[in-house]
Amino acid sequence: MEAVLDQRALVLNRSWVPIDTTTVRRAMVWLCQGVAKVVEPETYEVHDFQSWSELSAARRDGPCLHTVSLSIRVPEVMMLTGYNGVPRKEVVFSRRNLYKRDGYTCQYCGTQPGSEELTIDHVLPKAQGGKSTWDNCVLACVECNKRKANRTPFQARMRLAKAPVRPKWHPLIALKVGRVRRCWERFISEIYWDTPLVPE
Fold this sequence. Notes:
Blueprint (H helix, E strand, L loop, with lengths): L1 H4 L2 E5 L5 E6 H10 L2 E4 L6 E2 L1 H10 L5 E3 L4 E3 L3 E4 L14 H7 L16 E5 L14 E5 H7 L4 H4 L44
Parallel strand pairs: 1-7
Antiparallel strand pairs: 1-2, 3-4, 3-7, 5-6, 8-9
C-alpha cells in the first residue's frame, strides 16, 4: 500500500487549471476533509468522498486502497474546491529549457548547427569556479566550445551574443519524467518533461 500512497495525482484549481501534483496519500486526506474532489478523467465527473466510494464499489478496475470495510480506487486527478489561483513557478534549469532560451543558437558565433552539434558552455569555466546556473551557462557549437576551452570569453577573446539570464517565461506546471499519467494529457497541453540540471 505504501507504494500506491506515494503515487502522484494531478491537482487542478477550481477552474480546472492544472497547478501541481500531490501524493495519493495527501489527495485522500483532502478528499476526506472536503478540500478537494476527485475528477474522473474518462467522463470529467466530479466526486466527493461518498460518491467516489460508491463508484469504487461498482467499478473494480485500476489500483485501489483497501481498508477493513472499504476498497476505494486511487484518484488520478483532484480538483481543489476552495482555491482558484495559479502558483508562480520558476523555470526548471534543464538542458531542454537552456536550448529553448538560447534558441538552439551558438551564443558565440550565432550558428544553428542542430542540437547534436551544440554543447553547454560555462561562461566562467568550472575549472575557475563557475557553477551550472542560468546566468553562467550558454549554448556553444562544438567549434566555439573547443576554441574557448577552459577560459572566460574575455580570456579567449570571444564575444557573447547576449548575457545569460534566467528566462522570463514561467511554466504552468513542471513534471518529472516517469511521473506523468496518460489520463493527465486531457488536462495538460504542455509539460516540462525535463530532469533538472542540479546547480553545483
